[in-house]
Amino acid sequence: MRYKILLGSVVIAFIGLAVFTPSFARETYVALVSRLTDAARAVEQTTVEMQLFELANNFRRSKGLPALAKDEALQGAALAHAMDMMQHKYMGHNASTGHDFDGRMRALRGGAMVLPSMGENAARLTHGGAEAPDAARRIFEQWVKSAPHRQALSSRDYVKVATGVVVQGGVLYADQIFSGPDVKVNFGRAEESPATTLY
To answer: Distance (Å, rounded) from C-alpha 93 to C-alpha 20?
Structure first.
């Protein structure tokens, strides 16, 4: 059976400067995440989410890298972005509100000036969806074959990952958000701080 997987990857490094996030007349990103997370529960594919999480950590272990912890604070954001892509039939890193990945993460942190190292892998599987027992493997193999996606999966900068997967009409959307240790600003200097929940 032929299938098609579309991928997207974005990585942002530690950022110490304020970035202007435009004010949108439409729904705020935080409100969008809240609304879509609730809606996504009906079409969420928790089995595929778990498989993608395990595949990521198996891959990292095979490279001598530490395993990633589940990022419960960003789980809703990953699930909401998968749902956003599904509802609007696209695959990418910008939300339907117009926020890019950096803007999305800043919005969830109340417009924080400093973010930890972060990255995102996204995918759309258009044939078989979650009905295929190897859906997670198909997506993961394509991520590994792609240099930017592989870089996110194998980065030493990341310590946590959130995974969201939804399916509708045989089309599966997956999103993984990677993050490094949280940072705090102290007199203009950024320092690592213990992980905190975002919302």
So the answer is: 18
- What would the two tokens of residue 29 be? 């990103």
Stated pTM of the model? 0.79
Closest CA to 52 of 123, 118, 115, 112: 123
Q: Could you report the per-residue pLDDT of 36-80, keeping only the tens digit for each?
A: 998 898 898 999 999 999 999 999 999 999 999 999 999 999 999
Q: Beta 160-168 vs 69-70: how paired, if at all?
A: parallel
CA distance 187 to 11: 27
- How far, in Å, CA of 49 to CA of 66, rounded? 19
Q: How many CB atoms lie within 10 A of CB 128?
A: 18
Hey, is 113 helix, strand or coil? coil
Handedness of CA 155, 161, 164, 165 (dihedral sign): positive
Check residue 110 and report its DSSP letter: T
- Give, as one character, the DSSP assignment of residue 128: S
Rounded Cα–Cα distance for residues 11 and 46 (Å)? 25
Q: Which three-class secondary structure state does DSSP give residue 57? A: helix
